[in-house]
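User: Sequence in, structure out. Go.
Assistant: Echoing your sequence, followed by the structure tokens.
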Amino acid sequence: MMDIESHTMVFLRDLLATRAVEDPELTAFLACWVYEELWHGEALGRFLRTAGVAVEPGERARAVRQSLGARGRARHIGMLLGGAAFRDFPAVHVTWGAVNELSTLTAYERIIAATANPVLADLLQRIVRDERRHYSFYRAEAQRRLEAAAAARRLTRVALDRTWAIVGTGVRPLDETDFVVLHLFGDEEGAAAAAGMDTKVHSLPGLDGLWLFQRARQRALSRTRRPSRGSGGMVFQR
């Protein structure tokens, strides 16, 4: 999570290469968003160091970005081409942002519920307050843009259905992403949390029935080839 929070600057670079840069309200929000996300990563790094984990967020962020290599450059080019080709691309961006912020704040809430460390709980509660504001902005923008144009609804649905994955996928190795998914959402309570997130996504115009989070959970379970605690109670719908 420290790695992904610290990687936000790269996401911003990609976004500003699209039509999103033309919207002054969106860019004003992004300026605050990237600042707060950066310091989330720094705060998590400080917590880890205090807990005895030898990690330097700045050096680690550099290593993570360099490890992307050609994949990172290809992603940037893809964002540039998508933003140029589709007038409704900002609708995809804000909806994608809402989905990712929802998963992030829910994941932090799952850790808060499980930890016995009061310092970690307090730190994550503070981060969650920021993430809720980020989610609120993204969701309101997504609602407005999806309601306004059928083309935006079609493009956003196709983009999420075909290319969305749990935040951090591609930035960190897939086995690490799967570990986080199953650690936080692998039991029955986690399955209920995933279903609750899907319900929130379905309430956005044109996105009913995507089942993004339950599908991601199921794929993580399938890749591990082992049942998670309480997984027998999961209901997966497509």
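User: And one key feature?
Assistant: The mean pLDDT is 86.
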